[in-house]
């Protein structure tokens, strides 16, 4: 989850997010170098005593500042396109979960084998247990197995919502009447937090998403328990 | 992922160049910048010693910094990416080893394979 005054990304919990973090570092280094270059040129221009009132053109520098940015853009675009296509790969999901947005809660349905369906409401601040996170905890988490490709079908019952979990590198709009698909693999066990990412009314900020990734055995125990409770 | 671990933040809080580039925690960043700074110093000094032109030496030094940092960054990141791919292949192999141990699909088995009704079928996505 995010910590106060955080500027950067959260730690990655899926292979796609790891790749996105690496790409971000790559793009940031290029941005940093361009910034230093511009800063250096500004200082050099401001402090020079040279003047030339008759400068009309210069083919050499025109070529340099056309070719160099093109090369830099290609160096940024290649890994970017690689990740773009990586995110769209067919990955034979082991599990399909439907995430349905409502005003103002999420509901989840696991219908691969038997019907498991439950609502996921935010835990109000006054009901939080010690150690729990304000505006992020829910009463029923979405539980998934680790190291297994999971397909999430996202839709909404009323208005636009968006199902987002930054650690897993997923965000998908929940549109009424439309089924959007996204997928992720939780690389490690843990609890991953997200929040609704499309304005949806008064309590838009109070419908968080919590994904709990557990080893398969515990996922089986959890699903057995959910079926018994149903 | 730091939840309430203030000490973790203190340990991992790196120096951010220009407030954006976390030099300590980004792989290859520290090495690239150090190489760049070193070559900037060397190139600028060498140019000054040979030509005694101060401003041009600064320009040469900066150009050395730019090119060396960019070059070492790409070189390090490409090797880093190859290592990550190898790491994933090894992890996958270890997982397969555990799953297939004792079956006909065990890559370490050298004897004649024994097919039986209890042999597990490999998942289709492997």
TrEMBL record, chain A:
Cofactor(s) in the UniProt record: Cu cation
Keyword Aminoacyl-tRNA synthetase applies: no
Pfam family, any one: COX2
Record field: catalytic activity: 4 Fe(II)-[cytochrome c] + O2 + 8 H(+)(in) = 4 Fe(III)-[cytochrome c] + 2 H2O + 4 H(+)(out)
Positions of the Cytochrome oxidase subunit II copper A binding domain: 92-225
Family: Belongs to the cytochrome c oxidase subunit 2 family.
This protein's name: Cytochrome c oxidase subunit 2
Organism expressing this protein natively: Eucyclogobius newberryi (tidewater goby)
Lineage: Eukaryota, Metazoa, Chordata, Craniata, Vertebrata
Name of the gene: COII
């Amino acid at each position: 989850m995010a910590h106060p005054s955080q500027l950067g990304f959260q730690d990655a919990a899926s292979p796609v997010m790891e790749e996105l973090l690496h790409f971000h570092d790559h793009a940031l280094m290029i941005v940093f170098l361009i910034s230093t270059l511009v800063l250096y040129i500004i200082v050099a221009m401001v402090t020079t005593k040279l003047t030339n009132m008759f400068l009309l053109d210069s083919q050499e520098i025109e070529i340099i500042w056309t070719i160099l940015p093109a090369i830099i853009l290609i160096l940024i675009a290649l890994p970017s396109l690689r990740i773009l296509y990586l995110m769209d790969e067919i990955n034979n999901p082991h599990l399909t979960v439907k995430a349905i947005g409502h005003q103002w809660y999420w509901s989840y349905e696991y219908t691969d084998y038997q019907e498991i369906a439950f609502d996921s409401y935010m835990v109000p601040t006054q009901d939080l247990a010690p150690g729990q996170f304000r505006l992020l905890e829910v009463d029923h988490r979405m539980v998934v197995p680790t190291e297994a490709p999971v397909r999430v079908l996202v839709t909404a019952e009323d208005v636009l919502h968006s199902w987002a979990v930054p650690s897993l590198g997923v965000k998908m709009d929940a549109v009424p009447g439309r089924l959007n698909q996204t997928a992720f693999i939780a690389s490690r066990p843990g609890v991953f937090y997200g929040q609704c990412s499309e304005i949806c009314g008064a309590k838009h900020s109070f419908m968080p998403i919590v994904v709990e990734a557990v080893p398969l055995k515990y996922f089986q125990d959890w699903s057995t328990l959910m079926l018994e409770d149903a | 992922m730091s939840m309430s671990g203030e000490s973790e933040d203190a340990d991992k809080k790196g120096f951010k160049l220009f407030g954006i580039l976390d030099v300590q925690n980004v792989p290859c960043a520290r090495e690239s910048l150090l190489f760049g700074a070193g070559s900037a110093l060397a190139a600028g000094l060498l140019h000054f010693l040979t030509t005694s032109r101060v401003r041009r030496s600064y320009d040469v030094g900066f150009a050395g910094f730019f090119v060396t940092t960019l070059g070492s960054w790409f070189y390090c990141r490409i090797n880093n990416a190859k290592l990550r791919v190898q790491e994933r292949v090894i992890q996958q192999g270890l997982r397969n080893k555990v799953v297939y141990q004792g079956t006909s699909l065990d890559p370490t088995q050298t004897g004649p394979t024994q097919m039986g009704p209890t042999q597990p079928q490999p998942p289709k996505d492997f």
